[in-house]
């Protein structure tokens, strides 16, 4: 089927403003302060509520510096710490990273293991050959079979990494780190800590496809809408509780079309090819990194296997939209998803997560 329009860009849109559309105004102790940053190729908007402007601006300055540092240190295809680490891994050498990157890698290793490697930031080489290590969408032909076969034979995995303090080494030189599938979520987790340290209790952070909140928006919660990947509309809205993160992965934001096929920037590590069949996955949890990583993993898992992978990763609130427009959601997501403007765009099938899954054991390495 054809995608119903390609207008959709960001998957999530702040809906809080909608509540004011009827002309109701909320008395505020201080104005909401908004600032926009550019990080990981996306615009990241931060809005604080109820703090004096000077305090908010100071906190934003700290955030801005922190985001710029993450952008440099975690970039998968520009000179920086990650590129140096990748060069050391390829050369079979250990490499010293800073504590923040060591922690992020350990978190990625655990999440990769929990997802049976469907989310695996070690597959940077596979992402690269499909042309997604660029700021603009790829053009040209898909990679040759021999290239994909070589990448698969290398079998790169996060569990090949050993992280001892701040020393990182890999037993497999085919590992090429690309943190794109959870960096945004992890960055929002760190930003939440920064804002808390600056004494800010109520704020929302919104970065194309990922939203995270602190506190609430005064008398009402921060409310976000999940955008309909097929149309210029929304699937529904979620009122986020303090500390929650909602992330959506989709094949409609970064992709290329060739021969009538849409190639997603999400790669199935089992085939070294873009995943097929799923248009978007939204995951709600208490952690940005977990929501972001799980949204990617469940996209790869596909329509049949996602409930088991969700249970293994410990996420309960999931919404999946498949190529044919079917919408599937867990009971925990159904409890939170509110219809907007006259109902959901299509009936939602409720899917229970299995209760008896074996959680993969992921020894710290
Ligand atoms: P978005 O960046 O649109 O939020 P994702 O969170 O799903 O989307 O991240 C996709 C990015 O993650 C890709 O651009 C690539 O850099 C990287 N990636 C692609 N496939 C995988 C995978 N299976 N596991 C881990 N990282 C991946
Ligand atoms: Mg992700």
UniProtKB/TrEMBL annotation:
Keyword Flavoprotein: yes
Signal peptide coordinates: 1-21
Annotated family: Belongs to the ApbE family.
Enzyme Commission identifier(s): 2.7.1.180
Protein's name in the database: FAD:protein FMN transferase
Cofactor: Mg(2+); Mn(2+)
Organism: Rhodobacter capsulatus (Rhodopseudomonas capsulata)
Cofactor binding comment, as recorded: Magnesium. Can also use manganese.
Binding-site list for Mg(2+): 181, 292, 296
GO terms for MF: metal ion binding; transferase activity
Superkingdom of the organism of origin: Bacteria
Top-level EC class as recorded in UniProt: transferase
Pfam families: ApbE (PF02424)
Keywords linked to the UniProt accession: FAD, Flavoprotein, Lipoprotein, Magnesium, Metal-binding, Signal, Transferase
UniProt catalytic activity: L-threonyl-[protein] + FAD = FMN-L-threonyl-[protein] + AMP + H(+)
